[in-house]
Input
Amino acid sequence: MKIGNREIQGFAGLAPMAGVADRAFRELCTRYGAAYVVSEMVSSKGVSMGDRKSKFLMQLSDTERPAGVQIFGSDPEIMAQAAKTVLEVQPDFVDINMGCPAPKIAGNGGGAALMRDPILSEKIVKSVVDVCKDVPVTVKIRIGWDEDSVNAVEMAQRAEYAGAAAVTVHGRTRRQMYAPPVHTDCIAAVKQNVQIPVIANGDIADGVSAARMLEATNADFLAVGRASLGRPWVFQQINAYLQEGRLLPEPPVSERMRVMVEHIRSICDYKGERVGIREARKHAAWYTKGIHGAAAYRRALGMLESVEQLEEIAYRICLENED
Output
């Protein structure tokens, strides 16, 4: 797939996820075969006001390329100002969030709320495209605000007209949040009605579901979000199945624990142990999902205070769950 003038090799990229897709996780997913990664969503108002946290969120490293920075907001001028600042970190593309269903985002006119105002959404895309020039701009949308206002085709067409280089479609409405089903027919309709690449998103959890999504939608590419939580190797599984038809099993418990410790060490390296270990608790819970005795482990991991404590728990998990 080509996003503007950027060649993207592979089948699936890491979807942007607030509070999850930080530098440590993006680098890990890249190593496991993610075709591209996208930052946590960054507030356009925060960036334009020089907010330190917003600037930290959009920092990219050389080991996670190709990588995009995602921004959100509802004011075309402020979004353009933010995009100008984002260009300083040299992203491979800039992504506009028009799909986040969270009340604190959509309730303030950003994210999925833009699905209710296609004209404003087109203005936002154009304002960002005008600033970014040679850097491609992509847009992430849902299929609509609710079942009575499914308008993904119009949104995608307006984005294309305004200069977007690709569109990612999450196959649910805002009202659905993350509840089933994923409406693959709506993603397929977008693909049939635009010329730019269409990236399908929603419930892609392994190679088989990836193949089904591509077959059902004829999409150009895939974006994987929640299925990668505690499972960065999902990209390796998707690549193996789509390239060679091989079904890769889940890694043994010992390997899962090794990756977990490596991941959390990286979080602490980048953010400091005090902040990093608190953020790491949710990741640790995801890594232990499905392991025998997981509930007890999660209680212990939920009170993590140090990397050493994490290593002790990981060692105990390996002993009690011999491969």
